[in-house]
Specification:
The complex is a heterodimer of chains A (218) and B (59).
Chain A: H1 2-20, H2 33-61, H3 64-95, H4 105-125, H5 131-144, H6 147-157, E1 167-168, E2 171-172, H7 176-217
Antiparallel strand pairs in A: 1-2
Helix pairs in contact in A: 1-7, 2-3, 2-5, 2-7, 3-4, 3-5, 3-7, 4-5, 4-6
Chain B: H1 3-58
Amino acid sequence: MVAALALALVTVALVLVFFVAPNDANQGFSQRIFYFHVSIAFTAYACFIGGAWKALVHLWKRDPLADLESYVAVHQGLIFGSLVLITGSIWAKISWGHWWLWSEDQLVLFLVLFLFYAAYFMLRFSVDPGPQRANLSAVYALFGVVLIPVSFLAIRIAKGFIHPVVFTRHGPNFGGWILVAYCVSQVAMFVLAYALYRLELAGKRLDERLRGLREVLA
Amino acid sequence: MTTAEKYVTAAYCAVFALLLLYVVIIALKLTRLEREVDELVERTEAGPAEEARERTLVG
């Protein structure tokens, strides 16, 4: 049901992005990357925040399911994070003429956030399964959430090539069909991420239950 | 097709290719889990039958 909704929303978003929304006055056609790039970035942040929240729940209630949920959320965040880096690089190539600029704080800070969460998996899989692994992973996931506001604010304080700022204190920097296309894209990405989260979580839970069953039968 | 159009198409294709790859990996994993469930069901069903056969042979 959620997967079907996600598919329908993504289709509607694509129609709006390519056939309804007008070309941006400054950036022209290349601005169309922004609909998915920004939506995916916010989805990645939401996944990392969700992962941190579940980590907190795990540390608070010692619930093994919360640990698994935190792990899956961080995994989703990393997938969407990699999409942010790919789409952002392509946009940078069109607009700035470079795939990547190490001098740009907002790019480097997002990469730091991405690598921080990539290291989460190295930590998790270097410890044997059990309460110790769950606790270490939870603490790490909680620390990572501090980097999210830093990464978000870096776009606003950037001075070099100037990463476009979509949302200001006075609201979004656009209106009409551009706003509609963006909102639908954003909702589509949130629903898609939730559908993928549920799918992966179901697989992980089934895997754990099967492992337990095999041990009982052995 | 202009250069900007090519890059935008590439960006959207990259997004869907990566998401498709992820879904395929999850689907393969779920297929493996389904196979393991079937194996366990076979083992649990074969268990009592074998025990009954052994009991008959001993008796």
